[in-house]
């Protein structure tokens, strides 16, 4: 029994500044086992595996690999130990080819050419049913291809302990199935696989054992056979919770914002959006489902007047607002609010406090040359109270707040502007369950008030439960606009992969 | 005016730029924008001059110039790589330091001239066959061995970055240090080595000025060439081979005024002196307009890397 | 024993001041070793530097005169640096400002004194400002690297003055010696408390810039843009306009420093008009954390360093370039010290039981 233990972590503790990320965590993974590391966002899963991969060093505690105690000072030592990690945010260089990404960092001949390398990669691909185009540059790859490349990179180094950090987050259902088959092959080859996730369904389907983390501590390790999704949820959240997402019923659905045949070019001169048309209604949440990089970012920016349309029209309450800047849109008395994907990079100024961040959307409405911060101080206090933002004060730089609190400040500011249309993308990314549901409640509240909400999400289950209708994008084109009540995850997945609504229905009918 | 004489002078005037540009490329390939090129050139120029003056040995002078350039780069590397200091300000400080350093050490050397012995060992050597190529043969291949060192370095660096494993790793560090780190590449080690070698190249560029081009000591001998080199890195698209072209092109601009006057053309000296600087600006603007993904700076250029950042 | 670096808990103000003070002490120590190495007693050298810069009423005045262009230029540079626009071209902007002022001084000296001085200032701000708005425009339009463009423009400005000095503006009364004529009395700034009124202009600018950056809409826009271009775009700001405005202000202020130097210090235009103030001011702006009130203190310190530096040159035969080295060493130490504010070094962490 002891001999088959590949990984053992004992009493691992890690802090970042004032944040305690891991406290006394234990983990045991056997040979030929698929082990799920389950927990909410912020529970410390990524931190824990990053210590296994040598990216972080633990403050205290010990790591044993195949029974031998290890002190990893760098990823290099971890790799030498047979540990391979596929990161949630891929560690690939866009401008290099697949082959270059695979071989970089390896010991080997002095020059990079050589047929040996390619032979080795091809045989690996056959063994695990992987595919890769070695001369393709990463910047030209889809998300699925990139993930495949990451896996090959890890296997090429001879890893037999594999760590996958949220591997399914970016994949469509069909790709998930393929990934699971690859992981099962690894298991058959005697690898130990650690998979980080917060999706219970996947844990039950794929894994042998599961370790649950909560607030940096480990709660329990159990065999999958002896547990249930309900039990795991309670372990994760720390008590019985009702995780039903309510779809609020509303009346008065009227067209408010019409998007007519719009196209947008990206910075490389390629079409990021192509001939997109749909209509947003009052008192409605319109979900947007798409694989990362399918044009959802450009769509949000186009609706908000941030990017130039190369074609098409935007009609708001019967008025053509094509080509207007965000500022002009406000001045017309139309308020539209956007929560960009990149919260700190775009929505907020990290080094400024809450007051100055509230100022961002209002300062130019003030009269004269000077800024009056007084009214905003009151607003900031109100926002902190109403949304329960935990911060040392309204004059604290927002970048030092936690992800959930940053999101609350951002969304709170937008809601204060009392918009008619609220555009949000990934508003719950990186938030824990409590904060996530607060955000969903906020969106529902807006919907009840008659606001037309555009919600770009990544979790299909949430999209299906929260939205009234779902718009599906693939390669910048609309592949479907469906009623959320009458569709399935699989159908959405097909559309995300490029099948249009019609072709799917035809298949279903035949 | 004899065209091949002009080209030959352009090659000589361009060689310091070539060395400094190669130094800049080495820095930037691993993600470090080093605005201390001018300072390191000055350090190398004064060290090379003093050693050459005292020992009458060209090789020792060049070694000293390279070593002192690397020493200047070491200060920069410690501050930006290990201590995550702002690269722009650190580079500027290094230039101030180099200016002071060279002014201080060179104070007693002002007006001194390099001995014939050193000049002789760095005298032009005609390469058979190659020097017979019409027009460009003589200017390119009847030069000092110091110039040839520049060609060889550029070619070696080109091969290194494109075809070797170490070069690939270095590019990965410059593009995405987090990915390089995760792939087991020692990010800081790569940065240090490339920055230091880059500094040595800058030092050699300076020494070429004080040993071959002038060859005497004068205060502020580089006269802004280090800054032009920083721009040439962009002009060359981070490609060492194109650095040769860029270096010689600007070498030509540098001597244009002097040559035109020599040829009896009446042009305004002061305006011609502005030409290299003005052309540098034009080059930068053009590089900005033509930006594309394969001719773009290394992605992490200017940013510090800290593994535990979150 | 393992040594690791981790992100420190948020540093207190006291800790920051302590670390910065230690950095300067370290710089003085390193410089001391350097002075010792060249055969002098560092304590003697330091104390005569202090004597040289503050030892008598005359020396204090000289120090203040040296501080004025540094302070004004640093204020200008900070406006651009706030926007993360690395304007290294203050030297050239000072020169062009001085050129604009000289143009007025040489052509319209017959007007009343007040009118001459005022139009000199306006000409200086415009000429300096234009010299800064060019790289600003290139950056806004094509993303051209502003550090190098501003620097190249320093050289061009300098060559321009050389051209004027040897060419069209050569003073016929100087018997062939290449120099530009001295200004008439109407073009020379008056004195107040024994020092030309540049110091009052500087202090007024400190207040104005402080208010501008912290309490006006335009200042707010500059700071937001400096933090993130995307955020500025998202908030509907006109990025190009902000860049042009900030670079004009930044360079215009440097231009004003040029006017003051030409009018009150050299009474004419020459190649040494900026004398490196444009570069030193970058350091001052950076060391002050871009905060206007702090720049007053740091400018005085650097002026003392320069003044004291020229004093020890005569007293100890230490060359002027030593002052450059000392400046750079202080800068290196302060740059390095920032790290210890943000991170802390842990010894022996991650030690494992039974090892």
Question: TL;DR of this structure?
Answer:
The complex is a heterotrimer of chains A (510), B (310) and C (355). With 510 residues, chain A is of the alpha/beta class. Helices cover 34% and strands 25% of the residues of chain A.
Could you give the topology of this structure?
The complex is a heterotrimer of chains A (510), B (310) and C (355).
Chain A: E1 5-16, E2 19-30, E3 34-38, H1 45-52, E4 60-65, E5 68-70, H2 75-80, E6 83-86, H3 98-103, H4 115-128, H5 143-156, E7 161-165, H6 173-188, E8 192-197, H7 200-206, E9 209-214, E10 217-223, H8 229-237, E11 255-265, E12 271-281, E13 284-289, H9 296-303, E14 311-316, E15 319-320, H10 326-331, E16 336-339, H11 343-347, H12 354-359, H13 374-386, H14 403-416, E17 421-425, H15 433-448, E18 452-456, H16 460-466, E19 469-474, E20 477-483, H17 489-496, H18 501-509
Helix pairs in contact in A: 14-15
Chain B: H1 3-29, H2 37-55, H3 58-82, H4 87-106, H5 116-121, E1 125-126, H6 137-141, E2 142-143, H7 145-163, H8 165-175, H9 177-182, H10 187-213, H11 225-235, H12 240-262, H13 269-289
Antiparallel strand pairs in B: 1-2
Chain C: E1 3-7, H1 13-37, H2 42-54, H3 57-82, H4 90-107, H5 113-142, H6 146-166, E2 191-192, E3 195-196, H7 198-215, H8 217-227, H9 229-234, H10 239-266, H11 277-287, H12 292-316, H13 321-342, E4 343-347
Antiparallel strand pairs in C: 1-4, 2-3
Helix pairs in contact in C: 1-13, 2-3, 2-12, 3-7, 3-8, 3-10, 3-11, 3-12, 4-5, 4-6, 4-10, 4-11, 5-6, 5-10, 7-8, 7-12, 8-10, 11-12
Protein described:
The complex is a heterotrimer of chains A (510), B (310) and C (355). With 510 residues, chain A is of the alpha/beta class. Chain A has 18 helices and 20 strands. Chain A has helices at 45-52, 75-80, 98-103, 115-128, 143-156, 173-188, 200-206, 229-237, 296-303, 326-331, 343-347, 354-359, 374-386, 403-416, 433-448, 460-466, 489-496, 501-509; strands spanning 5-16, 19-30, 34-38, 60-65, 68-70, 83-86, 161-165, 192-197, 209-214, 217-223, 255-265, 271-281, 284-289, 311-316, 319-320, 336-339, 421-425, 452-456, 469-474, 477-483. In chain A, strand 7 (161-165), helix 6 (173-188) and strand 8 form a beta-alpha-beta unit. In chain A, helix 14 runs parallel beside helix 15 (433-448). Chain B has a single domain, classed as ABC transporter involved in vitamin B12 uptake, BtuC, CATH 1.10.3470. In chain B, helix 2 packs parallel to helix 4. Chain C has 355 residues and is mainly alpha-helical. Chain C is 72% helix and 4% strand. In chain C, helix 5 (113-142) packs antiparallel against helix 6 and helix 7 crosses helix 8 (217-227). The longest helix of chain C is centred in the middle third of the chain and has 30 residues, at 113-142. The chains are: A alpha/beta (510), B mainly alpha (310), C mainly alpha (355). Chains B and C meet through helix 3, helix 4, helix 11 and helix 13 of B and strand 1, helix 6, helix 11 and helix 13 of C.
């Amino acid at each position: 029994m002891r001999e088959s233990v590949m990984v053992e972590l004992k009493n691992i503790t890690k802090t970042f500044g004032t944040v305690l990320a891991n406290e006394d965590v234990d983990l045991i993974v056997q040979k030929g086992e698929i082990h799920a590391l389950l927990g909410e966002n912020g529970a410390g899963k990524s931190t824990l595996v990053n210590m296994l991969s040598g990216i972080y060093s633990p403050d205290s505690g010990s790591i044993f690999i195949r029974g031998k105690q290890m002190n990893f000072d760098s990823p290099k030592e971890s790799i030498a130990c047979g540990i391979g990690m596929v990161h949630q945010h891929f560690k690939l260089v866009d401008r290099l080819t697949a082959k270059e990404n695979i071989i970089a960092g390896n010991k080997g001949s002095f020059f990079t050419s050589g047929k040996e390398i390619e032979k080795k990669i091809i045989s690996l691909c056959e063994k695990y049913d992987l595919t890769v185009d070695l001369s393709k540059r990463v910047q030209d790859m889809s998300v699925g291809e990139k993930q495949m490349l990451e896996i090959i990179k890890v296997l090429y180094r001879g890893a037999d302990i594999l760590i996958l950090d949220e591997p399914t987050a970016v994949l469509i259902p069909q790709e998930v199935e393929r990934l699971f088959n690859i992981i099962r092959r690894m298991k058959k080859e005697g690898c130990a696989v650690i998979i980080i996730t917060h999706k219970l369904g996947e844990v039950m389907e794929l894994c042998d054992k599961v370790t649950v983390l909560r607030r940096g501590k480990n709660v329990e390790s159990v065999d999958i056979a002896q547990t249930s999704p309900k039990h795991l949820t309670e372990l994760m959240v720390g008590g019985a919770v009702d995780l039903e997402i309510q779809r609020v019923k509303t009346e008065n659905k009227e067209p408010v914002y019409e998007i007519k045949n719009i196209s947008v070019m990206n910075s490389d001169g390629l079409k990021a959006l192509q001939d997109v048309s749909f209509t947003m209604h009052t008192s409605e949440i319109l979900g947007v489902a798409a694989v990362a990089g399918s044009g959802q970012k450009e769509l949000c920016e186009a609706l908000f007047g941030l990017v130039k349309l190369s074609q098409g029209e935007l009609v708001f309450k019967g008025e053509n607002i094509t080509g207007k800047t965000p500022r002009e849109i406000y001045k017309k008395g139309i308020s539209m609010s956007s929560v960009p994907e990149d919260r700190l990079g775009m929505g907020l100024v990290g080094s400024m406090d809450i007051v100055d961040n509230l100022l961002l959307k209002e300062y130019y409405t003030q009269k004269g040359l000077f800024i009056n911060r007084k009214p905003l101080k009151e607003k900031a206090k109100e926002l902190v109270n109403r949304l329960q933002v935990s911060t040392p004060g309204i004059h604290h730089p927002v970048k030092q707040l936690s992800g959930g609190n940053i999101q609350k400040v951002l969304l709170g500011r937008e809601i204060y502007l009392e918009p008619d249309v609220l555009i949000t993308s990934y508003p719950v990314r990186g938030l824990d369950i409590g904060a996530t549901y607060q955000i969903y409640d906020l969106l529902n509240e807006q919907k009840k008030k008659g606001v037309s909400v555009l919600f770009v999400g990544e979790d299909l289950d949430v999209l299906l439960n929260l939205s009234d209708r779902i718009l599906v994008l693939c390669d910048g084109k609309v592949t479907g606009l469906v009623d959320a009540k009458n569709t399935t995850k699989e159908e959405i997945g097909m559309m995300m992969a490029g099948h249009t609504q019609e072709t799917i229905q035809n298949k279903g009918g035949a | 005016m004899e065209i091949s004489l002009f080209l030959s002078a352009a090659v000589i005037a361009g060689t310091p730029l070539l060395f400094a540009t190669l130094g800049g490329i080495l820095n930037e390939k691993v993600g470090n924008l080093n605005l201390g090129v001018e300072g390191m050139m000055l350090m190398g120029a004064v060290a090379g001059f003093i050693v050459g003056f005292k020992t009458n040995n060209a090789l020792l002078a060049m070694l000293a110039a390279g070593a002192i350039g690397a020493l200047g780069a070491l200060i920069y590397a410690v501050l930006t790589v290990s201590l995550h200091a702002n690269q722009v300000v650190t580079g500027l400080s290094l230039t101030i330091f180099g200016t002071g350093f060279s002014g201080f050490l060179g104070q007693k050397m002002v007006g001194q001239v390099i001995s014939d012995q050193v000049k002789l060992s760095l005298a032009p050597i005609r390469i058979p066959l190659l020097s017979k190529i019409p027009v460009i043969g003589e200017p390119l291949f009847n030069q000092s061995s110091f110039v040839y060192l520049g060609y060889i370095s550029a070619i070696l660096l080109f091969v290194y970055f494109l075809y070797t494993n170490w070069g690939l790793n270095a590019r990965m560090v410059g593009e995405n240090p987090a990915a390089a780190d995760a792939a087991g590449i020692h990010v800081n080690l790569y940065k240090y080595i490339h920055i230091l070698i880059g500094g040595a190249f800058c030092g050699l560029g300076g020494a070429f000025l004080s040993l071959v081009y002038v060859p005497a000591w004068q205060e502020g001998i580089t006269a802004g060439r280090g800054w032009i080199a920083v721009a040439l890195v962009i002009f060359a698209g981070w490609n060492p081979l194109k650095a040769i072209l860029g270096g010689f092109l600007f070498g030509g601009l540098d001597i244009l005024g002097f040559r035109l006057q020599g040829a009896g053309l009446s042009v305004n000296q002061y305006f011609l002196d502005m030409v290299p600087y003005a052309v540098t600006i034009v080059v930068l603007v053009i590089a900005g307009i033509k930006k594309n993904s394969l001719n773009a700076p290394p992605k992490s250029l200017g940013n510090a890397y800290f593994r535990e950042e979150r | 024993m393992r040594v690791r670096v981790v992100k420190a808990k948020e540093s207190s103000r006291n800790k920051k001041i302590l670390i910065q003070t230690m950095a300067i002490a370290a710089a003085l120590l390193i410089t001391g070793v350097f002075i010792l190495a060249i055969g002098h007693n560092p304590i003697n050298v330091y104390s005569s530097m202090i004597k040289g810069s503050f030892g008598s009423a005359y020396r204090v005045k000289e120090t203040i005169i040296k501080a004025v262009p540094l302070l004004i230029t640093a204020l200008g540079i900070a406006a651009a640096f706030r926007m993360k626009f690395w304007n290294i071209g203050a030297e050239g902007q000072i020169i062009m400002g001085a050129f604009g002022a000289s143009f007025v001084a040489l052509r319209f000296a017959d007007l009343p004194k007040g009118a001459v001085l005022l139009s000199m200032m306006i000409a200086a701000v415009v000429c300096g400002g234009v010299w800064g708005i060019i790289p600003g425009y290139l950056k806004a339009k094509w993303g051209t690297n502003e550090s190098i463009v501003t620097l190249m423009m320093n050289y061009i400005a300098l060559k321009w003055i050389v051209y004027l000095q040897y060419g069209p503006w050569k003073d016929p009364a100087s018997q062939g010696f290449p120099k530009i004529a001295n200004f008439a009395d109407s073009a020379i700034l008056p004195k107040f408390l024994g020092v030309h009124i540049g110091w009052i202009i500087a202090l007024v600018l400190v207040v104005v810039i402080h208010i501008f950056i912290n309490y006006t809409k335009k200042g707010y826009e500059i700071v937001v843009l400096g933090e993130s271009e995307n955020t500025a775009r998202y908030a509907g700001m006109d990025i190009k306009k902000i860049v042009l405005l900030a670079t004009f202000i930044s360079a215009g202020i440097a231009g004003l420093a040029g006017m003051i130097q030409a009018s009150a210090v050299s009474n004419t235009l020459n190649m040494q008009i900026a004398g490196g103030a444009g570069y030193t001011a970058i350091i001052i702006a950076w060391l002050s954390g871009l905060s206007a009130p702090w720049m007053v203190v740091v400018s005085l310190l650097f002026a003392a360093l320069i003044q004291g530096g020229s004093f020890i040159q005569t007293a100890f035969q230490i060359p002027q370039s030593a002052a450059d080295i000392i400046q750079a060493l202080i800068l290196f130490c302060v740059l390095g010290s920032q790290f210890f504010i943000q991170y802390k070094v842990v010894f022996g962490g991650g030690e494992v039981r039974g090892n």
